[in-house]
Amino acid sequence: MLRTAAPPSPSPSPSARAADPDRRRTSARTVLRCVLEHGPVARSTIARLTGLSPASVTDHCARLVGLGLVREAAAPRRSGGVGRPHLPLDVDRSRLVVGGVHVAVPYTTVALLDLRGRVLSERRLSHPDTEPARVLERAAEGLADLLRRVPERRPLGVGLAAGGWVDREAGTVVDHPLLGWRDVPAREVLRARTGLPVHVDGHARALVDAERMFGRAARDSRSVLHLFVGNIVDAAFATHDEVHHGPRSQAGSIAHLPLAGGTEPCACGRSGCLQAELSERTLGRRAREAGICDGHDPLHVVDAAAAGHPVAARLLRERSRMAGRAVRLLTDVLNPESVVVTEVGVIHRPDCLAALRGELDAARAATVTPTSFPDSVLAVAGGSVALDVLYRDPLSVSPERI
């Protein structure tokens, strides 16, 4: 009996061929995030938690181990003492680092972070002047110095975070009025100085990413609001693992929102604008007028309050209370599940956190927590810009940097 040859299988369409690498990248991201959240974790558990097949998990884990992102734990786990041992996987913190740069008004923070977002080293570089090229060049030199001290580590890239209007896609600081920066090509300048991939974003958005990846309260929330209160006051909002950027990444600009009860004159000609009222410059001026300290570092006000200075404690509570009014205004519009606040009083003093929560109803107050990174918030902001890119597309890691 003659057998007829089966017709040849049709070649995959161009769209199917394009979709296959996308699926691989999505699956690799899913596996790496599972290891980040649950590691050390067995491959079988990764398959169960992600819904991927055991074969697919094994393949992706091999890729991630080869890239230096994941390692096998030294001590295997046995299931009931029989069968082959399970070698749990964890994020590899020993080989690779990212650089973090945070540009603030009085200084730049440079840091090295491991792949779990833990700060390994950091330096604060005061600004002799705020000319953009010189600020970024000093940041690159500071990073190079930190890297020279850990020759066994390899840098994957650099994240830069700053306040004001930062365009993530273009890699530019579009407008930072307190520094006088306009359309600064920060990514281009830092990449030329470091020779590394550079990613740029606003610090409030970077800290939402940090909370989502490494933090405590917001990791399991479907929506998160972050309020950053420094010299620059801005906000970020994330839903379902995505931070909202808006056209040209302009979302989060809240400096001139009117704050109920605010009296501080603003450069825009009005009084009571959010940033004018809550700025560290305002806190510092009020501290100087009260004879508390020189007012150049808000932590000095915190220290004075801790030493028993009643006016220092009152200034901090009042600032936190006004921040609570800002939270109330924003949550009325966005209704997030979790609210994270980065503000010096809220971070260091329970009475300030209570003052902020006191501006909210009981249900909303329970959703508000301080930042998960009280001792390294600026370093984490910079590094998380690069780490977010890594965890979204781990297959983009260049083997040359391993």
From TrEMBL:
Residues 1-27 are annotated as: Disordered. Belongs to the ROK (NagC/XylR) family. InterPro entries: ATPase_NBD, ROK, WH-like_DNA-bd_sf, WH_DNA-bd_sf. It comes from Streptomyces tendae. Gene3D superfamilies: 3.30.420.40, Winged helix-like DNA-binding domain superfamily/Winged helix DNA-binding domain. Transmembrane segments: none annotated. Signal peptide: none annotated. This is ROK family protein.
